[in-house]
Write a structure and sequence with these properties.
The protein has about 500 residues and is mainly α. The protein contains 19 helices and no strands.
């Protein structure tokens, strides 16, 4: 059987099973979207409380920052593991158990008696978030017929955007209304309610043959990711020293060892076959580049708004909310467009708009007007709203059915890697054009060197523009290599 036939057969099997179960209800989608919302909401709502937590435990702010870093890093590390376990034991079991683990982590965080215990509890909560994120798209893909699938995936994208949008603002409201403990207590009842809804409306799914767990591959993967993230964070904070080179080499060696090992064992930690389709590889590359681009923009734009234009933190936050707001608004619309016109055309349109937004941001100046800023920020959110769900549809369609859970977790993994890369690249690139870290420049009341800062902004966004165009060219190249039969693209 040809490779393309494998994907078509897998898709036909899915559609047949979907038509039998009729499980694509609004409550099923709610059961999945609640987890997507909560996991991303919890990633941002603690940021605003870091100062309060540092004072409460009399800890340093860098140590307190690991409340956020530990949560995000645990998601990054456990996503592939949870996808693997879901394919073996069932996606419903792993997803729904994620609500309970997430609630336990939140309750334990609220009861923490020290900063160390709080960090550990946040790691537990991150494991629950990884369980929720790793299989949500696989559940929707398996439950919805092709004509409704794009719209459903767009709703998941909307839930992610709304979670990111409301996290900081709701967190600030809860802090003003009580203490930081209230942040975590609020999540507990919502997670428990979501668990019972998910138990009722998410259908049982097919499991695949049991296999031995690849401990060697999982350890190599974890070491490569942890060491690489450490290098990126160190560079982003301006801490460049010789030992980082050795850590980077260690990370690369571990990753190469992971690839080599995965090709030798029968049941690897991440099966190479999920990337056997050129469209999955193209979609994965687009996913990383798009999130790298947007997160680099979101990290660096506050420095421009506050340091160059002199906007207050409140006004800067309102302006930056244009991005998640438009992302949340156009996610379902993108899904509907994908269902009607084909995902490939929508992806190309999204990449075109994203390139246009990067080009526009590269032209920012000290005299840029407020209407232009609003337009560019809205264009950025609009382009990601159009792009994301259509790209998800492509990746989920072309992966063999037995790897749906792993593909869902891999998508979330690539998304988080893109966020980490964007954060590190933006801060690192700006430091090249300045006499010190941009944080030091912002904290100096007598700021100088605006020309160098603006040069850094211009070239950073030109770099991001180049990455976006490269992703588009790579997608077009792979798109024309694939021959379609019955599916609409």
């Amino acid at each position: 059987m040809k490779k393309g036939d494998l994907y078509n057969v897998a898709s036909a099997n899915r559609v047949g099973r979907m038509d039998k179960t009729k499980s694509y209800s609004a409550l099923l989608l709610l059961s999945v979207c609640a987890g997507a919302f909560l996991s991303h909401f919890s990633a941002g709502f603690v940021n605003i409380a870091l100062a309060d937590i540092a004072v409460y435990f009399s800890s340093s702010l860098p140590l307190t920052q690991w409340i956020v870093n530990g949560y995000l890093l645990s998601i990054l590390l456990f996503l592939p593991l949870m996808g693997k376990i879901a394919d073996r034991f069932g996606r419903k079991k792993i997803h729904n158990a994620g609500y309970l683990v997430f609630a336990i982590g939140a309750a334990a965080s609220a009861l923490s008696s020290s900063i160390a215990i709080l960090i550990i509890c946040r790691i537990v909560q991150g494991i629950g978030a990884a369980m929720l994120q790793s299989v949500n798209m696989a559940i929707v893909t398996d439950a919805y017929p092709e004509k409704h699938r794009g719209k459903a995936l767009g709703v998941i994208s909307t839930s992610v955007g709304i979670g990111a949008l409301l996290g900081p603002s709701v967190g600030g409201f809860l802090i003003s209304a009580g203490t930081w403990h209230l942040l975590f207590w609020t999540i507990v009842p919502i997670s428990i309610i979501a668990f019972f809804i998910a138990q009722r409306f998410i259908p049982a799914d097919q499991t695949f043959r049991k296999s031995t767990f690849d401990f060697v591959g999982s350890v190599l993967f974890a070491l490569s990711i942890v060491s690489f993230v450490f290098v990126l964070n160190s560079i982003g904070e301006g801490a460049v020293y010789v030992n980082l080179l050795f850590i980077l080499v260690f990370s690369i060696c571990c990753f190469c060892g992971f690839i080599y090992w995965s090709k030798r064992v029968e049941h690897p930690f991440i099966h190479p076959q999920i990337f056997s389709s050129s469209m999955v590889r193209a979609g994965g590359f687009i996913l990383m580049i798009s999130y790298c681009t947007t997160f680099a923009s979101m990290v660096i734009l506050p420095f421009y708004l506050r340091g160059v234009l002199g906007y207050s933190s409140d006004h800067s936050g309102l302006l930056l909310m244009c991005y998640p707001l438009l992302l949340a608004l156009f996610g379902p619309i993108s899904g509907a467009l994908s269902d009607k016109y084909g995902s490939g055309k929508v992806v190309l349109a999204g990449l075109t708009f994203l390139s246009a937004s990067m080009f526009g941001l590269s032209l920012l100046a000290e005299t840029t007007s407020l209407p232009i800023l609003i337009f560019l920020f809205c264009l950025l959110g609009f382009s990601m709203g159009i792009l994301t769900s259509a790209n998800y549809s492509i990746m989920m369609f072309y992966v063999p059915i037995q790897f749906l859970g792993m593909m869902s977790s891999t998508i979330a993994l690539l998304r988080n890697i893109g966020m980490v890369l964007g954060t590190a690249i933006s801060i690192m690139f700006m430091s090249i054009w300045m006499d010190g870290p941009i944080n030091d420049w912002m904290s100096n009341p007598n700021r100088r060197g605006y020309e160098q800062v603006m040069s850094g902004f211009h070239y950073l966004f030109l770099l991001l523009l180049g990455l976006t165009i490269t992703a588009g060219v790579y997608f077009i190249r792979n798109k024309w290599k694939v021959k379609y039969r019955s599916q609409k693209f």
